[in-house]
Amino acid sequence: MPSFPRILLGLFCLLVAILLLAPTLVVIPMSFNGNKSLAFPPVGFSWQWYENFFSSPDWTTSFSNSLIVAIIVAVVATVIGTLAAFGVSRAAARTGGLLRALLITPMVVPGVVLAIGIYAVYLDTHLVGTVTGFVLAHTMLAIPFVLIAVQASLEVFDRRLETAASSLGAGRLTVFRTVTLPLILPGVLSGALFAFITSFDEIIVALFITSPYLKTLPVQIYTSITRDADPTVAAVGTLLFLATSLIIIAGLLLGMRRERT
Amino acid sequence: MPVSQRSAGAAIEIRKASKRYGRFTALNDIDLHIRPGEFMTLLGPSGSGKTTTLNLIAGFTDITSGVLEIGGKSVTGLPSHKRNIGVVFQHYALFPHMTVGKNVAYPLTLRGIKGDERDKRVHRALDMVKMADFAHRYPSELSGGQQQRVALARALVFDPPLLLMDEPLGALDKKLREWLQLEIKRIHRELGTTFVYVTHDQEEALVLSDRIAVFNGGRIEQIGTGRELYDSPATLFVGRFIGESTILRGTAEISGGDTVMTIGGQKVLAHGHLAGDARPVILLRPERLALKRTGADIVSGENRLAGTVVEAIYLGSGSKYEIRLADGTTAVVRSPLGSADFAIGDTVDVTFLPSDLILLPDDASADVTLT
Predict the structure, then answer these.
(1) CA dihedral (B270, B274, B280, B283) positive or negative
(2) In CATH, what is the architecture of A59-260?
(3) Whole-angstrom Cα distance, residue A89 to residue A82?
(4) Fewest CB atoms within 10 Å of the CB: B103, B112, B189, B320?
(5) Domain boundaries, chain A
(6) Which residues of A touch B110 (CB under 8 A)?
(7) Are A167 and B106 an interchain contact pair (Cβ–Cβ within 8 Å)?
(8) Are strands B251-255 and B86-88 parallel, antiparallel or unpaired?
(9) How far apart are CA B151 and CA A164, in angstroms?
(10) What is the pLDDT of residues B236-294, one digit of tens each?
């Protein structure tokens, strides 16, 4: 029989969990609404909003825009972030600490402040509403996540293995390719996942640098919900919720595998 | 079956080599010549410079000044991956993401050796260390001793003319260590490769080496065979580091070319004397000393020091005694089987001939650096 404080603790945790999850879970029944309204609880049942998402060009283009930007960002940010993590971990302790603090600023600075700065620069350089513009801005936001993930795996990496590989005849690049990279790969992959998600669901900067010709999915969701009460938003939300859950679970599994080895 | 034809090992020539890290001098002007195919052990306490010397030879760090030649060629500035030297580390350093077979194949792949030839050489190398059945295992599935044998195979599979080992058995238990020592000795005999071995364990050094270089405080104190180091140490540090010893200090005077030491009121005669004005000390090996009843069996010319037995240990092959002498020092004596027995509390004479003692210049640092 659990004691009274334990029951209380359990109830409290349950309350926190509901508080965290409820807003997300509300979206799921709403996406099957029979009427064109965002009312909760929903009335009737239909798949029409899912059909709408896959057939309306507004939704499909913004979705593929987001996908393209996020994939490029994941690649670019992972390469830069991994190299940065190397630099930081191999530099002298003080220099490394300073560099790390500098590289992490995009995570700390309020999004709106960044967005205003980026918007001002983009107006002059005609980057508003371009894939390049989105990729640059999102890469900057994603690098800290890669840096942190890769640095964590570099910390447990045994550098003596590099010395051993070198004694066996491997040059520095070969050492990196055959020994270091395979062993820090879980960190690099989870960094790439974080980078992808950072870009894919980024809204603040995107709202500033978007144009009628290039909208990302979050921007499309935002404009759609402010213009009319279209439950397609709920369908998109449900799909994104499923996709991100799968990605996060994959990331967690990767992390667990890293801990075991 | 040798792994390959006896390849001539490489000679190593180190002249006036120093290594400084900022203001700290890790190696101070050392000279070391290692012959082709020799088993040379670098012996010394931690921080004495032996591992620094190994790292210099391996190319993990560069000398600050001096000459370093391997196989007759200067290797200054040559990175470690171009030196073609096998290295075995204390912590095995096997690649955890590769199987045993892949680990051993790694240096061959880098050298462009492929297919059957590579498989054959991997198998032979693993066979040599008796690990051929483990080729498909991962390092994490092996014990420490097994991992170190794989590391040895990996360091030898590409037939380097020189193998460096940095305390390779330091993390293993005593029984395994002794068995692997014999394995390493056998492999050295079969291959003819030059082996340079770093250890702080003097017994291990004696078991393995053709010659031993004794390091202390960034310098080499003496280079010689185990017998030379034991029987005629050049310094008090070497005498104390190799084997057991008793050190006697006293006031010395030189008469007629010989040295007479007064120790706790008793006189000890030593042949010859030290050059210069160094303060002499006497170093005695336990098996060169004999115990006699006080005043009994006097042999002319022998030295006698009176003392009391404070410890008597039966060892099977003989006995070991500790004797408290008049000046307070403890002398260690090993008596062979069949000599007279003594008990704790007996008053005895410790006796030895002048030719059995070793006269050395005193060195206060020799006492503190022993670890």
Answers:
(1) negative
(2) Orthogonal Bundle (1.10)
(3) 11
(4) B112
(5) 59-260
(6) 168-170, 174
(7) no
(8) unpaired
(9) 10
(10) 999 999 989 999 998 888 888 888 888 888 888 888 888 877 889 999 999 999 999 98
* pLDDT digits 0-9 by tens, A147-190: 999 999 999 999 999 999 999 999 999 999 999 999 999 899 98
- Count of C-beta atoms within a 10 Å radius of residue A239: 16
Residue partners of B60: CB distance under 8 A and separation at least 6: A163, A166, A167, B80
Put simply, whether B21 touches A (Cβ < 8 Å) is: no
Give all domains of chain B, ordered by start, each with its CATH number: 12-240 (3.40.50.300), 244-368 (2.40.50.140)
Token digits of residue A87: 């630099």
Looking at beta carbons, which residues of chain B come within 8 Å of A160? 89, 91, 93
Distance from CA of B110 to the nearest CA of A (A): 7
Question: Are residues B81 and A171, on separate chains, in Cβ contact within 8 Å?
Answer: yes
In this prediction the pTM is 0.82
Contact B85 A167 (CB under 8 A): yes
Integer Cα distance of B145 and B151 in angstroms: 10
Cβ contact (<8 Å) for A164 and B86? no
Q: Which two tokens stand for residue A14?
A: 């349950």
Closest chain B CA to residue A161: B93
Short-list B285, B305, B287, B288, CA closest to B245: B285
For the stretch B307-339, pLDDT in tens is 999 999 998 888 999 999 988 899 999 998 878
Report the C-alpha gap between B267 and B244 in whole angstroms: 23
